[in-house]
Amino acid sequence: MAPKRPKGAGAFPKPVEWSAPKPPDPSELYAALDLGTNSCRMLIAQPKGSQFHVVDSFSKSVQLGSGLERSGRLSRASMNRTIQALRVCHQKLSRHEVRHMRLVATEACRRAANARDFIRQVKRETGLDLEVIQPEEEARLAVISCAPLVSTKTEQLLVVDIGGGSTELVWIDLSSVPNRERPRAIMRLHAGFHTSVSPFTAAKVVDWISVPLGVATLRDQFSDVEDDAARYALMSWFFEENLAEFAPYKDEQAREGFQIVGTSGTVTTVAASHLGLKRYDRTKVDGLRMTSDQIEKVINRYLELGPAGRYRDPRIGQDRQALIMSGSAILQALLRCWPTDRLSVADRGLREGLLYAQMCSHGVLEDAPY
Prior knowledge:
This protein has 370 residues and is an alpha/beta fold. The chain contains 13 helices and eleven strands.
């Protein structure tokens, strides 16, 4: 006996109605653009609770500072590459109708003799208004971006931002701040390193320094040294010499209660190599803690690989292989001065700091740190 046909079996299925996600309200969007010596990077985000949700992003190696160390000027080729990238950024900003934004340039534009002409050219050809920020603000923005990674057990904090043209170091004393308030105390630095009277216990900035040596400029200083290991040793020694004016340089720091937070492509690449990642994964890298010994092991492996081996290593990448040893030399110099069992890797930096600062000043983050 044939089975009964189910009731309604011949009916057409109800069509599924697909709806595109509602685009965010342009009034809620914030943008941050960081034009550095090596890269042009941008984030567009909207506030979400006490953090933000990234709506769109852009990142490209433009090598704006290529040849700057030798000539003191931005080259025509590097400016053209950068303007092409900035056109893409302008298209994204226009498409999302972003109203709140900060578009900043750093070391290359601070140093180049023709930087003003370049910024006028950018405005003329892309419509973007670039703002050249000073080293203290660059350091401060990098610090607040790393606030979520600060341990409640940390009493002395060193934040290191290794850029293409400069490296910013900020030493912060958190010992007088209640444990649970320490990450929030870092966020409150968005108003400045030397804040006015506040009802909250403040994080004390002991000292900060902007060393005019980053992964690109340090590499260029020693480009004439052919031996790979010798060039690396010279770069590390030379960078350490430039720390002599940094107040905590001479002090021996106990590992207990001491934390370094490192933000840069160098630090995240070293972390990816340590984890053996075949494909970069931000969720595994951001917030990872490494010891001095683990970092030393990765750097020694880079030296064993040599230039050709580093070029082929997927964790380094062809764009970064030319810069990874100068970045590693900076990192090793820092760990020679302040060995640690808690170097926190931050896949975040100036862009995130710019976003946090804008959102904090507008009061659009929940549980704001004021």
